[in-house]
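Objective 1b: paired records.
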Amino acid sequence: MEKFIFEELAGDALREVLRAVKGTFLCRSNAERLRRSVEPLLPLVQGPHGHRELRELAARVRDALELARSAAAAPRWNVYRAAQLARRMEAADRGIARWLARHAPAHVIGSVRRLRDDADARIGRLERRVEEIAAASASASPPPPAMSVAVAPPPHKAMAASAAVPMEVVGPHKGVAVEAMMPQKGVVAVAQPKEGVMAMEVEGHEEGAGMVGGGVKVAKEWIKEKVMSGGGGWEVVGISGIGGSGKTTLAMEIFRDPKVQAYFSDRIFFQTISQSANLEAIKMNLWEQISGNMVVGTYNQIPEWQLKLGPRDRGPVLVILDDVWSLSQLEQLVFKFPGCKTLVVSRFKFPTLVKSTYEMPLLDEEEALSVFCRAAFDQECIPQTADKKLVKQVAAECRGLPLALKVIGASLREQPPKIWLSAKNRLSRGEAISDSHETKLLDRMAASVECLAEKVRECFLDMGCFPEDKKIPLDVLINIWMEIHDLDEPDAFAILLELSNKNLLTLVNDAQNKAGDLHSSYHDFSVTQHDVLRDLALHMSGRDSLNKRKRLAMPRREESLPRDWLRNKDTPFEAQIVSIHTGEMKESDWTQMSFPKAEVLVLNFASDVYCLPAFISTMQNLKALVLINYGTSSAALDNLSAFTTLNGLRSLWLEKITLPPLPKTTIPLKNLRKISLVLCELNNSLRGSTMDLSVTFPRLSNLTIDHCIDLKELPSTICEISSLESISISNCHDLTELPYELGKLHCLNVLRVYACPALWRLPASVCSLKRLKYLDISQCINLTDLPEELGHLTNLEKIDMRECSRLRSLPRSSSSLKSLGHVVCDEETALLWREAEQVIPDLRVQVAEECYDLDWLVD
């Protein structure tokens, strides 16, 4: 009997222990489930609309949330505490469910009755107020300058178009406030719709192009989640995109969404900002609407303590600021009191203030064609009588931009096929097809560019000189800006980020973060630009006559030079940048032209043979020459003698070119500072060369060799160029070793040997490079050791040695690298640096994340 009782007691104890352990493991998941189930209830039962009967439920919900937070933070080793919290959470969940089952239906009925009574009262007040406004207008007596009256219209076309629609005058608790007597620009106004928020629909606002298909649903849900979450603090969320991408349309969808209106209890305020807006008046007006405090007379300063505390017991507030043009504007208009969410709609990004930004996507082919057909034919698809191929070609030139689809489609409505064909050809050249296209699309988009600082604007216009649908090498772009705008490299990179933040270009491969390092190379990074933005750059650059333009660029690839260029060839062209895009060019295909002011020449082509134009020899001011072959194989160059007179050339970029063997005697390029060889076939043109490179390139400071797969070794004569400051060799799979004489380059401060898997050692003379600051040997998988005298590099600041899997040890002298501050490596290699970390002050060893990127495979 005693044994039976003992076994029963032991079984009960074991079951209790198992239940406790199970509760411990499920404690956090139960806490998360409880939080998700009760957190949405909290806004419904507290705030200005919470009644006495709901206080009990509000207290239960708050207690449940606090309990969930405690359970989520509880340590799992405390089994008793976790089990106790789990039981309490179950009890709290059951209690809230019972309350809702018993009392919720009655509260719904009572709330409906109160809403009906309140609506009747507000309609009465509205009718009286309309009569007062009419009387005031008849007597023509102006109101006090700062007086504003809160009115709550839902923002739709009917109310913007007609002042006769009754509008509800609201008290201080809710409503979209509108200045009813003296509307200011940017405020929703009934009598003068062109001055208000509704102007985007009345006047054909550039953002009224709209979104279609599933895009608007995805965008709405993303933004709704951001503005309806985040706790009780203030927060700024953004909608960003190029002009005409549908930003304002999306913001209006958020404004009208029933769930958003219910969450904020209709306390949503929509304000349009302009470039020359009166920010003090707008902020005052918004504050009156939010706080419900009428400001009378000349008082025009909001007390700071009011701004910090916010409206008392009002619940969450959403302020939508449309068409914001600068960070300074935004900083003045963001209210930072608890519960205030600000939705910023802008062509630009404001990463320092905006926590999350939704970037507007462009329409896919099917959606774009639907929008285009609605504008051109008033139906969703191409009519039977229309030329389907031609319609699709014209629609494709709009590149998925909603505003472009609407404007261009409307301009071609009821036009004959020849006009459509002309439009397709003009669009492919980046030209306007009609006055409406120029004024409604290009000129409106130009506003984003014209507000930029002069040098930033010039850098944007330079991007129109590169081919459409092609990635622009970041190194090329930065170098051109440095040469023709007299910029330092950090300043050029800052302009690049500014244009990116303003949605005027797109950085590829996370260039903003990865290329921003002090020792980063740009060879792995590129830039893209939407074709409509490229058309805009061409449109703005083409405002002058052909021979007077600062940039002379072929809008698209052609088999020969443009006819208008040939017609004007007898007059010198004043262009600073010349960009030519052709196929194969022979000597007979060129004509003599004069470019006395040209500083940059970009030659884009696709062929196996390419003859350099003879007029290069007359470009006495040429600083940068870029040759990019988009063909499938490397191109052989003819007429290399054109280089002989380029005494001022500072930068040379050759991509997918077959380099001929270098002759023994070559006329020196005395001012050449930078050579970049990308995807080139060297054909051993460097190996065994007896030419004295130090004489040919006496001032060369930067040498880049990338993806030159037949490069096996560097000629030792390169080590005679004492002016070299940077050598970058990357993705050269056959390179086995570097010349022993490398130590002669006493000015070298950057040595990059990246992704060269056949390289098995570094020459010992590397340790003589006293000025070396950065060494990159990453992805050299066959490198087994480092030179023993590595510690002699007393100025070395950073080493990148990720994916050096065969490197098993470090030289003992590595502890002498006193200037070393940053090492990037794999986890295994990081263990080798532990001893050095204890000796070298401020050394940071960073374990790199594995990254497999195939973007370079895409043209």
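Objective 1b, second protein:
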Amino acid sequence: MDHHYDPQQTNDYMQPEEDWDRDLLLDPAWEKQQRKTFTAWCNSHLRKAGTQIENIEEDFRDGLKLMLLLEVISGERLAKPERGKMRVHKISNVNKALDFIASKGVKLVSIGAEGKETMVEILRPAHFALFCLSHSWKDGLGFCALIHRHRPELIDYGKLRKDDPLTNLNTAFDVAEKYLDIPKMLDAEDIIGTLRPDEKAIMTYVSCYYHAFSGAQKAETAANRICKVLAVNQENEQLMEDYEKLASDLLEWIRRTIPWLENRAPENTMQAMQQKLEDFRDYRRLHKPPKVQEKCQLEINFNTLQTKLRLSNRPAFMPSEGKMVSDINNAWGGLEQAEKGYEEWLLNEIRRLERLDHLAEKFRQKASIHESWTDGKEAMLQQKDYETATLSEIKALLKKHEAFESDLAAHQDRVEQIAAIAQELNELDYYDSPSVNARCQKICDQWDNLGALTQKRREALERTEKLLETIDQLYLEYAKRAAPFNNWMEGAMEDLQDTFIVHTIEEIQGLTTAHEQFKATLPDADKERQAILGIHNEVSKIVQTYHVNMAGTNPYTTITPQEINGKWEHVRQLVPRRDQALMEEHARQQQNERLRKQFGAQANVIGPWIQTKMEVQLFSFSFSFLACQSKFHLTCRSHEYSNNTAPLSFSCFSLSVPGMPWQLSFLGCDHSGTLGPEEFKACLISLGYDIGNDAQGEAEFARIMSIVDPNRMGVVTFQAFIDFMSRETADTDTADQVMASFKILAGDKNYITVDELRRELPPDQAEYCIARMAPYNGRDAVPGALDYMSFSTALYGESDL
């Protein structure tokens, strides 16, 4: 839907305010109050330049003080004024001032250097929002609330009375003049005696509160920034000192330990070698682990320090010569190499002395394990449990026997190891060789007997398996065919008894077609039933002929022929019942279809009327600015209205960005979630960006568009807008920001004094700055002046700090 701006509607809305302003212009008291208020406001700024005015219209007539006032307010230099006394010189100066005001985006309608407009009209603030001024300011509570909010110690707000506006106003004006350096621009009697105070005069006075409080907030922010930067710098210096000390201690310990590990003097006794081994174990268990932890902590401290320096824009830390992490790793590698060689030497020496005892103990352990495994195996292989077993039990016995054969083959390696150890002991003339040989011979003989019994049992199990396999195959065939046929019958019974819910004739016709297809499969199903029953009869014949001992029923299924016959009869009974239900439902759906057609015809008549009403409602949405929010958030609401012929939709998005003075709300009619170039430009202007229609403004806007629309698609997505605003409002400390903060604390001087540092910063950080700041040697230096600029630069460059 298209939205059009209606100028007549806006004029009607603003008409009462314009009538009220015209009435005030005819009121001499109001005009006097205007001159007094704006004269005081101008003097509050001109005092910074060492001058003031008495008559706002006469003193600004030559344009000199008007240009000076604009320079003080904006902080910028205007064009050089004309110093002549002629009328043409005065008009030229006034025009320069008006041109400067217009360059800042302030529209001057019907105002010129030769016009009859009063200077009060020219200097009125252009962008104050009007907020319920007639009551909150008139009784004085609004002014007192402003002061109490920022300086609660100056006014006890709880003791103020709403019915005493004169006392409230005088209290606020006196406190503001005495403690906040805000001149009295208003008289309490004038405000109380006026039916409706002048909003512009009051808002001009309120703006002085804003400047007073914002200055204090800037000083506090500057002090906080400096504290944060100094705290980071102090923490980094402590980490550097800790790293140097820890690295020195670790390198010294490595230097002392390596010679001990490189000592290879052998010992003659086992006891002495055991003592060396015990000392080495104490080293690895008690002495080395803490050093490993120190080494890890050292690397963690180094990496943490480098990360902090990088994130705070400081230069990387360079340890002393020989104390780099790589130097420590190289020294540690030498320690590990010496430790490895020492350990291998100790083990080789101990193995050399313990070889004979170790071989004997190894033989005894392996022999005991083997004898424990063979216990009872011969009796198991001689059992005849297969003679009365079923086929499934025979197969289980065969699998169990195969597992035993695998286990037997696995133990072959142990038997060979036992024989090899016994042979080695004989070659080394072990003192107890006869007993070792006797035990080894017994193990070998038993092993041969187990192999013969294993082969005999396998042959017996295979003969029994063949006898029962034919019957088992028939049982399995019966189970394979009975199970799916039984499932088919159960599914058929469920389908035939299932309650169906349909809404159209097509649905009931589909059910009827499916039912007819099901009935066509019944003859084939009956043939399958008879084949399954035939398999069961064949099994019974084999059991009777060969007198096979068959314990229990079919092991593969619990479905009996009786169950199959019973379910088959039930299916045959349910088929005609389903036929009758489908016929009745088909008749009901035919009746419903007639009713739906009647409803559709009436709905098509009322649909266009509903669409017209909805379009009128959607046309009433407009574009507005909202107040600044404390943190970034996004709200999206979507609504859609539609009828059967014309869908209507709109979307509304609201965006606020921390640090920006406005919150933007906009309405998109295309439902795309994107902004066109002109819409995006309007958003930037509303957020405070200086993007005019001149060449400089167009160049700046083109630069921003290249960031949010790099592919030149001609639109700005919502995510691209969020990313751009996040980058614009990011707060990263730099040397320039720290110098600017020090300059605020120094009162815009190029140096700072000891007293100012101690007054604005915490004691420890103030002393830190005093100890490290160099004396200031500029022309405007005073005794004890310190150079904060070189100090701020050193924080982010090469320095001994």
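Confidence is low (pLDDT under 50) at residues 1-26, 120-134, 616-669. Residues 217 and 524 are 93 Å apart (CA to CA).
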